[in-house]
Specification:
Blueprint lengths: L2 H8 L10 H9 L8 H13 L6 H14 L3 H10 L5 E8 L16 E7 L2 E8 L2 E7 L5 E2 L8 E2 L22 E3 L6 E4 L2 E6 L2 E7 L1 H4 L8 E3 L23 H8 L4 E2 L13 H10 L1 E2 L1 E4 L2 E4 L6 E2 L5 E7 L5 E6 L6 E4 L33 E5 L2 H19 L7 H12 L11 H12 L7
Length: about 450
């Protein structure tokens, strides 16, 4: 089989479920990283979620359908449903974090809920978690909708299904299917449909009674095994986060209405660093950001005058009554930090590791309690680091088996600003404290 034949096979859901997956996996491992399309993404995502155990072509078709749906490849999912008509179950819709994807939402870590309501003649799904504000979906389509008017939505409950529950590992009369181990306590919707939820999101799935009529029984097998080594594959350029910061991107990361932007004409004349002026006017910075015991707040739209001809960007509350000013050099764009009680060597610096010789703003003032130490290369890097914490929260707190959430997050942070996070960097202790919200503390801050 040539490389072209292999890629064509992956893009053909009529043939793919019938092929030896061990052979495919070995061939994919030898492919150049830049070669492939939607089929390669879907195949590797399916195995990353459900594992590499052999299953029937029909059940693997259900895996492919789920993977295509969560990746947003609706056309491929439709082709799977047509090509494999005996799917034991299919994904109606999903709001789900795929393996290897790091986005702010969905993030249902912690105490979450998914509840069905009826309002204005249609059924809605209400989803909420500590890091997911109340979000409503049209239950039939998965389309996000506005919250219903107060007191217009009534809880809607279906009775238990006649016969076994889908993916029930404790009922020997349930079908012998594989499912992620966290797919517990489904919400029955009637008509063979269920809502499943875990920390990665929610999914509405539908069983096919005809396909399951002769399916082996014995209970579901909850998958709690890592997928193939190397994880899922993504088409180059489709999941990268090193592109420019934009208003839409920051609204997704921090929440619409929680990003402040300042018209270019209203920015201080003293701010001459062009990239920073563009960032503040077009993309913005978070008005409020929090993780664990740490928070950042920006009061008002304009950077205001600070010490030593610097501009004040906002304030970090580091917890335990520890606060720090985030300051901006108007000419170089470098970001510095000033903490009460810090000397010129910066936080956590030993006498033999002075914070001198760097390019940060306001360094080496020598005045206890007023020193400004280098903190980030520029405001762009500062915002990206805050964004990285939000994007990686869910994967750090609830990684898939073998995903390595905290390790991947720290690697991504170093790619943003390696100098600020290097050993001995004056601002490193503060960044480590900020990052601990997702690398050491749980979703509840403990």
């Amino acid at each position: 089989m040539t490389e072209a034949d292999l890629l064509a096979l992956l893009d053909d859901p009529a043939r793919l479920p019938h092929h030896d997956r061990d052979v495919l996996r070995a061939r994919l491992a030898a492919l150049p990283d830049g070669d492939g399309g939607v089929g390669r993404e879907v195949f590797t995502q399916a195995e990353a979620v459900f594992g590499t155990d052999p299953v029937t072509p029909a059940e693997f078709g259900s895996w492919l359908h789920f993977a295509a749906t969560v990746l947003g490849h609706e056309e491929y999912a439709e082709r799977v449903a047509v090509a494999v008509p005996a799917l034991p179950w299919r994904t109606v819709w999903a709001w789900w974090r795929p393996v290897g994807v790091h986005e702010t939402e969905p993030n249902l870590s912690g105490d979450r809920s998914a509840e069905v309501y009826e309002a204005d003649g249609r059924r809605l799904l209400r989803v909420e978690a500590p890091w997911c504000e109340e979000t409503w979906f049209d239950l039939a389509t998965g389309r996000r909708v506005a919250a219903p008017e107060k007191d217009t939505a009534e809880p809607s409950e279906e009775g238990e299904p006649d016969g076994p529950w889908l993916f029930d590992p404790d009922d020997e009369n349930s079908w012998a299917l594989r499912a992620p181990y966290a797919w517990e306590e489904p919400v029955p919707l009637g008509g063979g449909r269920f809502v499943f939820q875990d920390a990665r999101g929610v999914a509405v799935v539908e069983q096919d009674d005809k396909a399951l009529a002769d399916w082996p029984r014995g209970g579901a097998d909850p998958v709690h095994r890592a997928g193939p080594e190397g994880g899922p594959w993504f088409r180059p350029g489709t999941r990268e986060t090193d592109g420019p910061l934009t208003a839409a991107r920051l609204d997704r990361a921090f929440g619409a209405g929680r990003v402040v932007r300042t018209a270019a004409a209203d920015l201080p004349a003293a701010l001459t660093h062009a990239p920073t002026r563009t960032l503040l006017a077009e993309a913005g910075i978070p008005r409020f950001w929090t993780a664990g015991v740490t928070s950042f707040a920006r009061d008002g739209a304009l950077p205001v005058s600070g010490p030593e001809d610097l501009l004040t960007v906002g304030t970090f509350d580091l917890g335990y009554r520890d606060r720090a000013e985030v300051l901006l050099h108007p000419t170089t764009g470098a970001v510095g930090l000033r903490r009460p009680g810090e000397d010129a060597d910066g936080p956590g610096q030993d006498a033999d590791r002075p914070g001198e010789g760097t390019d940060g703003p306001g360094e080496g003032t020598g005045r206890a309690g007023e020193a400004v130490v280098p903190f980030a290369r520029d405001l762009d890097a500062f915002v990206r680091l805050l964004e990285a914490v939000r994007r990686h929260m869910g994967a750090c707190w609830d990684p898939y088996p073998g995903e390595g959430g905290a390790e991947i997050f720290l690697r991504a942070a170093r790619e943003v600003d390696g100098a600020a996070l290097a050993e001995g960097a004056p601002g490193l202790p503060v960044w480590e404290h900020v990052f601990a919200a997702v690398t050491e503390l749980g979703v509840d801050g403990y």
